[in-house]
Amino acid sequence: MDKKPLPKKLAETAKTLGITEEQIIAFACPDMNRDCAFVKSYLLLTKEMLVIIDGKVNPGNVFVSESLGEVPEETKDVSEHEIRKIPLEDLDALKLSSQIRTGLMYCEGQTTEVLSYFTIARYGEMLQLTAAFTQLKHPQAGGETETERGRRRRRPETKARRPMEGAPEGMDETEKKMRPREHLPVSLRLFSYLKPHRFRLALVFLCYIAVAACNLVWPYLSGTVLYDQIMSRDPAILKTLHIQGNRFILALGLVVLGMAAAKFLIMVISVLQNLLNAVISNHVIMTLRNDVFASMGELELRYFQNAQTGTLMVRVLQDANIVSRLIVDEMPGCIINIFTLVSTVVIMFSLDVKLALASLLLLPLTVFMSAKIRPRLHVLFGKRHRAERGLNTALNDNIAGARVVKVFGKEPEEIQKFENTNQKVQDAEVDITKFSGLFNASYSFVEEMSTLFIWAIGAYLVLRTEYISYGLLLTFIGYVAQMNRPIQDLVRIFRQWVDSMNAAERLFEIIDAQPQITDAPDALDLDHAKGEIELKHVDFGYEPNIPVFEDFSFKVPAGSMLGIVGRSGAGKTTLVNIISRMYEVNKGSIRIDGVDIRDISLRSLRKNIAMVSQETYIFIGTIAENIAYAKPEATREEIIAAAKLASAHDFICKLPDGYDTVIGASGRNLSGGERQRLSIARAVLADPKILILDEATASVDTETERAIQTSLAALSKNRTTLSIAHRLSTLRDADYLIVLEHGKITEQGTHEELMRLNGTYCMLKELQTNALALKGLE
Amino acid sequence: MAPMGGPPPAGGRNNMPMRGPGPVNTQEEIDLARLAERCDEMMQIRYLEPADCAFSEKDSGFIQLKIDEKVYTHVDIYRVFPYTNPAEYLSVRDAEDAFREIGIIRQLSAFPEETISLIERHLKLRYFTPEIKEILFVKRRAGVVTMKVRTEYGECRFAFRNNSNAVIRLGENRVFIQDMDENRYQIPDVTKLTIREQKKLDALL
Ligand SMILES: Nc1ncnc2c1ncn2[C@@H]1O[C@H](COP(=O)(O)OP(=O)(O)O)[C@@H](O)[C@H]1O
Ligand SMILES: [Mg+2]
Predict the structure, then answer these.
(1) Confidence check: pLDDT of A181 > 80
(2) Are residues A497 and A550 in the same domain?
(3) What domain count does chain A have?
(4) Closest A-chain CA to B107
(5) Residue A574 in contact with ligand 1 by CB distance below 6 A
(6) Of A226-235, A428-437, A546-555, where does mean pLDDT reach its minimum?
(7) How far apart are alpha carbons A283 and A271 in whole angstroms?
(8) What confidence score (pLDDT) does residue B23 get?
(9) How many Cα atoms within 13 Å fall on the side-chain side of residue A167?
(10) Residues with Cβ within 8 Å of residue B18, at least 6 apart in sequence
(11) Quick one: A217 and A68 in the same domain?
């Protein structure tokens, strides 16, 4: 035990009590009293006694959390504390009780009594003290185990946090399975999302037009008006401005004011327009996502089989963003850019044809640069993006599969793999830097040259002709400079268009994917189901050419419990999947209470059938929310009752945050057995007529399984239960058992009948009993 | 079928049918009765009625519960919904028998005054979560946030890692901060802090 230095004052007090520093075996500083006030108390343990120095409540006490690593301040005067000495022979045991945020130490012996209170941070040193005591009292029994048990108990959750499990991969399969139907072109459909925003969009357009107009006026004012009319004292301008006399200074003031107003207007309008854009685009994203989610909810299992739902979601969210950016930010911009370009050209030609021609002569060069060479830069960007994605995947893979990597000792290989991917990112980055430097330099060179060219031609024309003035030239230069941006924008938008259309297409694929399992037009609700299940000549296969069931017929009476036994791959899960209509049968029919399940509305079918499957899914949310998933309106009492039936109540209560514990994703991780019990609670709360348990208790221990079984036995009283289990002991309560092999029932009957049959069931039973007997369990 | 399904204790299955009435049989009966009781217990929640139970604090500092003529000398009380419903649904557990649940208090307010204050005091200790009244100081360095705050219990200084789940938001405005030692602090309503304090906090959320 590493000893912390004894606080000096404490050592002095100890001395006044007749205890030397050497006699002190252990000490601790509990920091609370029973009213939760912060105090500075001390515990001293010697061979003869336990000394308790109770701190006084003092408003000046500062609570300093242990992890700050500060040495606890010394109390001014220990003597004002209440001091109590308990001889060790009066104490049988010193024990700690971990409260949720605090702890307390109590003794057993002559009396049972709480001796001190402390915050959870002190748990460690308190543990050392009690361990030292135990060592002293019972040297033969290891104080060590106590310590370890306490440690384990101490930090139940912090260490266990692992990042969310779940690897990406596997999108393509799903994508293939989505069947798009004939529809409007994607781009037109996108506009339908803008419909609710007609007025806002109109306003956005107005804004754009206003900005464009202001932009158009600016060069004219700064060139022609300023130079040719005011500076060259053209009386016509005074007339237009209705100014009497020869006051050109006033005219100048007015024009400057006009120019300032134009810029100011641009600013105000831009703010307004950004605001509008934000409102519209957020709403469009939301609608798009909602549509996608709604559609996903209806799709059957088949659709999601190979996709990790998470990755799919992430992509949906990203796609929605890309698409909405295009339709909300870029499209209006695009139209306005075209408008600006055309009107600029028109104005230029109306001002002067020759100069206009000269100005536009070199324009194709810059267009070429933007359209042809810049894309190369984007190829490089794409390369970097892919490299980065590779890096992410590698990282994710390693986090999700960390356990596997470690188990097989593959860290060096993984690190090498990671370094390679990382190198790729680096290379791509270097390429980009090189190329973009070159491109930017040459682009601005071309830009400068074309401006120079216009200057030269213009100056020449000014010198040679009468009718082109210096101001007009300035106006033209202004216009040409203004054309650059719209051109670049347009080129960029056209490039993004392709990306966005791809994203949009993906979204629409999901939105349009027709659930193959839908309600029949006259589907009926199963209100008071009895729960009789009958399969008649059912054919089914996941792939058309590989049948799992052929001409399969079977009947489960209402209210009975059917046990399904079989090797893995025999078709047990498939059987319950088709009964709950997760998949549609190819031939034959499945009837519940004599009604074909295809004639029952999916809503009422799902309400009447609850399935607890092998894979438990935990949603992000609190435990209470997870249990109440199928019945959000459930009362707290119902939730507790369901959890109790699933043997989950006790473990939940013992969590620090109880039913309010956040689980899933980044929340607390539950063990496999705990997850299964939650799923069972969820199913119990749903109170279905037909309960399907597909190896629902596979990952709970035998003890808990028994408990769950007992509750399920009570639960299955008024409902039909289909129970699939590996452990045959799980099926003790089944009224009837079937043995599946390669999609066929090979044996059926009650437990006794099957045992008498001496077939597969009997053999499996024998095997398992022997195995258990070997382990001494049965 | 025995409800518990457990193997009957020694001397059960094989001997019983032949022996007839005798000590073994009574033993069996007692076991069955106990099993049935345990089984009920396992599936049903007992809600504690104020009339049935007497809570008291012993000299030991623990809560004692007397119910159905049974005395539990050390019970622990857990909140079932610590955040969303701290005053109702309290699970009363026997600390001397592996924290087996004795029952649930549906509404503490239905109990006598002394019981309420007794249980509230114990809950306060168990779920000790000082309320942050004022943020005096926030510092961030290398992903570790150090805070100095004033709480109803006095000044507290603590540290937590900003990248983990140390800051928990509950509902719109309620915030919990868990420091590295697992002490928790709460801010019941963030908007009640001054703007400056909110700014300091915003950097963390
Ligand atoms: N989604 C699927 N697509 C194609 N084949 C599947 C799919 N799921 C299961 N199968 C196949 O169907 C057969 C039955 O599987 P399953 O019902 O899961 O068996 P069990 O639950 O009895 O272990 C197996 O051969 C399996 O490979
Ligand atoms: Mg299966």
Answers:
(1) no
(2) no
(3) 4
(4) A637
(5) yes
(6) A226-235
(7) 19
(8) 43
(9) 13
(10) none
(11) no
- Whether residue B2 lies within 8 A of chain A, CB to CB, comes out as no
Average pLDDT, chain A: 78
Interface probe with A: pick from B134, B163, B183, B185, most Cβ of A within 10 Å: B183
Rg, chain A, Cα only: 40
The per-residue pLDDT for A397 is: 65
Residue of A nearest to B117 (CA): A35
Q: Is the CB of A305 under 6 A from ligand 1?
A: yes
Which residue among A548, A582, A723, A742 is best mutated to probe the pocket of ligand 1, counting the most ligand atoms within 8 A of its Cβ? A548
* The pLDDT of residue B113 is above 90: yes
- The percentage of chain A sitting over the pLDDT mark of 90, rounded to a whole number, equals 8
Is A64's CB within 8 Å of B156's CB?
A: yes
| B75 closest CA partner among B27, B122, B23, B116 | B122
pTM of the model: 0.69
How many other C-beta atoms are found inside a 10 Å radius of the C-beta of residue A522? 7
- From A161, A181, A201, the end of a domain falls on A181
In angstroms, rounded to a whole number, what is the distance separating the alpha carbons of residues A432 and A378?
9
Query: Element (H or E) spanning A691, and its range?
Result: strand A690-694
Among A283, A298, A313, residue at a domain's last position? A298
Is the Cβ of B205 closer than 8 Å to some Cβ of chain A? no
Classified as helix, coil or strand, A513 is coil
Question: What average pLDDT does the segment A505-519 reach?
Answer: 72
Nearest CB neighbour to B179, from listed A65, A99, A102: A65
Q: Are residues A750 and A771 in the same domain?
A: yes
ipTM over 0.90: no
A695 Cα to the center of ligand 1, angstroms: 14
Whether A542 lines ligand 1, by a CB cut-off of 6 Å, is: yes
Query: What digits encode the pLDDT tens for the residues B78-112?
Result: 999 998 899 899 999 998 888 889 999 999 999 99
Shared domain check, A484 and A423 = yes
Distance from B79 to chain A by nearest Cα, in Å? 7
Predicted confidence band of residue B31 (pLDDT cuts 50, 70, 90): low
A224/A337 same-domain check = no
Per the structure, the complete domain to which residue A313 belongs is given by 301-511
Q: What is the pLDDT of residues A675-734, one digit of tens each?
A: 888 888 988 888 888 988 888 877 777 777 777 777 777 777 788 999 998 778 778 778
> Parallel, antiparallel, or unpaired for β A62-64 and B154-161?
parallel
Task: Please report which confidence band the pLDDT of residue A400 belongs to, taking 50, 70 and 90 as the band edges.
Answer: low
Are A475 and A347 in contact by the 8 Å Cβ rule? The answer is no
Rg (CA), chain B: 25
Residues A338 and A430 in one domain: yes
Gap between the terminal Cα atoms of chain A: 44
Q: Does B81 touch chain A (CB under 8 A)?
A: yes
**Within-domain flag for A520:** no
| Domain map (residue ranges) of chain B | 47-126, 132-202
Q: CA A190 → CA A99, A283, A320, A670, B95, distances in Å? A: 57, 13, 11, 43, 63
Q: CA B193, CA B191: separation in Å to the nearest integer?
A: 5
Instruction: Measure in Å the smallest separation between the Cα of A191 and chain B Cα atoms.
Output: 35
Does A472 sit in the ligand 1 pocket, CB within 6 Å?
A: no
Q: Would you state the structure tokens that stand for residue A41, as one six-digit string?
A: 């108390």
User: What digits encode the pLDDT tens for the residues A465-511?
Assistant: 777 788 888 888 888 877 877 877 887 777 777 777 777 777 777 77
The larger pLDDT score, comparing residue B35 to residue A210, is at A210
Q: Buried (b) or exposed (e) across A186-215, using 16+ Cβ within 10 A?
A: beebbeebbeebeebbeebeebbbbbbbbb
Better-scored residue on pLDDT, A619 or A151 = A619
For residue A572, the CA-to-ligand 2 centroid distance in Å is 6
Terminal-to-terminal C-alpha distance of chain B: 57
pLDDT of res. A143: 43
